[in-house]
Amino acid sequence: MKETLAMANLQVDPARPALTSEQTLTGWRREFCVELLGEGQARIFLRAVESPSMKADELRQAILFHRIGAAFDDLDGCVAVVREPLEQLARTAVRQKPSQDNLFAAVTYDRGAWDRVVQGVEHWQRRPHSAPPREPKR
Fold first, then answer.
1. Tens digit of pLDDT per residue, the chain (138 long)?
2. How many other C-beta atoms are found inside a 10 Å radius of the C-beta of residue 111?
3. Helices (H) then strands (E): counts for the chain
4. What's the whole-model pTM score?
5. What is the distance between the alpha carbons of residues 129 and 69, in angstroms, rounded to a whole number?
6. Count of CB atoms within 10 A of residue 118's CB?
């Protein structure tokens, strides 16, 4: 059973799927995912996939995803930075039954909030990392 860390209405899955160099070279990728559970709840997780995810398939499961780099390793820090738009996204998400007019999306959500989440994730993974101090040359 996986343990999750509760952050108000956000559940952050602690699993961090690793990719080997071989997998990265053969097209595997990692994705930042938000599963909209309804009633103001969302599960945030990372996953490794062999081929690109299909938006329509994921929307049927109420999962939003964004591709991240192989070096992305601080999900908790990233979630803390984008917490406000994530909470807005979770609060505005409404599960719905597929209808003739809407066969693919099982959920409606605030697209602006999702855009802000994606921008925050992009900014987080491109931020400068502080390198350990070097010893002076002698």
1. 344 444 448 999 988 888 888 888 888 889 999 999 988 999 999 999 888 788 777 887 889 999 998 778 889 999 999 999 999 999 999 877 767 766 666 788 999 999 999 999 999 988 876 545 555 565
2. 11
3. 5, 7
4. 0.79
5. 14
6. 17
Residue 89 token pair:
């996204």
Judge whether 47 and 58 are in contact, CB under 8 Å. Answer: no
Query: HSE-up of 42 (CA within 13 Å, CB side)?
Result: 30
Q: How many residues does the chain have?
A: 138
Nearest-angstrom CA–CA distance, 119 and 127: 12
Nearest to 43 by CA among 60, 61, 25: 61
3-state secondary structure of 94: strand
